[in-house]
Structures are given as structure tokens and as C-alpha cells.
Amino acid sequence: MTYWHQKIVLVTGGSSGLGRIIAEAFAQAGAKLAIVGLESADVEQVSVEIATQYHTETLPIVADITKQEDVERLVKETLDRFGKLDVLVNNAGRSMRGKLMDTTPEQFQALFDLNVLGTVRCTRECVPHLLKNRGHVINIGKPA
Prior knowledge:
single chain, alpha/beta, Rossmann fold, 5 strands
């Protein structure tokens, strides 16, 4: 058994890319997962695939971390299902490549709201529960 066996891990942006790889690594180590993403079909599919492949319990959650009410709901759903939280992986985010003068202030604001404030929202909502278990916060940075 590993340290992560039976730990409860919440992964934002967990339905694709690096988030999915992180979720799979925790599942392989024996953790139970709350997998958060924007697209219902993707979140459901990844949740089933990880649960089946790694014989672990998963909870698919569709949420937009730029919305405080979604963040509150995703934490509540995780706690309702698993009873605790041991790890938050702040992975949801987006990057944008392009010239500064071709990028509007609104595009920068949207990136900031997701990449920075989304991380802040999730962390603030999870920390009281993580402190109870001496849990962990893992932040994945996205280039602007």
C-alpha cells in the first residue's frame, strides 16, 4: 500500500490532458477521486475509465471554477460522497499564445479569472477540510 491509498483527491481539469494523467497516477496509487471538468460527457467517460482500470471509486463533477457557486457545490459533493478531502489538485486552466497587441483585455481577464482566481476559489473552499486531515494542495501553473 502507498501513502495515497484510500486518500480522497479532488482534481480540477481532471477530464483531459495533464489533469487526467494526474488523476490516473493517484488512482494507480490507490486514491479515490473527484474528477472535475466542464464537459459532462468527458467527465463521465474519464471517471468510468479510471474507476474501471484502477479499481477505485470516482466521482464525476461538472463545474466551472470561475463561478463561486460551482466551487462550493463541487466541494460539497466531494464531502457528501467521501466524507473528507485529503488532496486538492488545482489543475484547471488555459493558456493563450499570441502577440500582446492582438490579445484583448477581456481575454486577459478571462485567463486571469480561470487560472488565478479559480485556483484561489478552490483553495479557499478546500483548505478548511484539508487542514482537518493534514492534507495537500498541488497547484499546476499554466503559462499566460
